[in-house]
Amino acid sequence: MKKLENKVAVVTGASKGIGAGIAKSLAEAGAAVVVNYASAKDGADKVVAEIISNGGRAIAVQGDVSKTADITRLFAETNKAFGGVDILVNNAGIYKFGAIEEITEEEFHRQFNTNVLGLLLATQGAVSSFGTKGGSVINIGSVVSRITPPGSAIYTATKGAVDAITQVLSKELGPKGIRVNSINPGIVETEGTHTAGIIGSDFQTNAEQTAPLGRIGQPNDIAPVAVFLASDESGWLTGETILAGGGMR
Q1: Global pTM?
Q2: Strand partners, 184
Q3: Is the pLDDT of residue 210 over 90?
Q4: Under a CB-based contact definition with an 8 Å cutoff, are residues 48 and 56 in contact?
């Protein structure tokens, strides 16, 4: 029996990158997976098709995690398709780097709405769907909250908030049998890091030179950690932050 057999997982921001890798790995471990996306329908449909072609179960559901109505619909469609939820992966996230002089109100709210408010609203929706059986919430933070690179004030602030929220909700939700943990990746090669110009930059070179394992990550470096935190193998873990950055901290 696969370790996530008969489990249902919702993965936000799962149309590409780390989210897509986690969604596929959860499905491979036996979970039925809801692939949430904000705008990249083609990517989400591709992830679903790959899961189904490998014998898994999956659906794609559009939704902006920062909108309560979208979260309500996300979990309603999940419950309709699979009859409940056992696992939530709060992966949806956005970033933009810039010096303090470049910060605007709009950019502040754009990142905090998705990275922090979206995480809270999605968790709120999952808690209602978990019911009395409990569940596992896996937040995707970042090592930036430890290494605090220049030019990342807003993004690092959002991920520092994720660290704090993980601690608060682990205590708040533990009595309900809900575990809350975080994975904080280092630089991972994804569509997003290519688009942002991180791949091939001095930032990547510096990361490779300073990380003990001497390389940046791939989505399949993160996904197995999520499977572990989703499974009963981690049943005694809550409030933990796992740094997954090749030793970068």
Answers
A1: 0.96
A2: 243
A3: no
A4: no
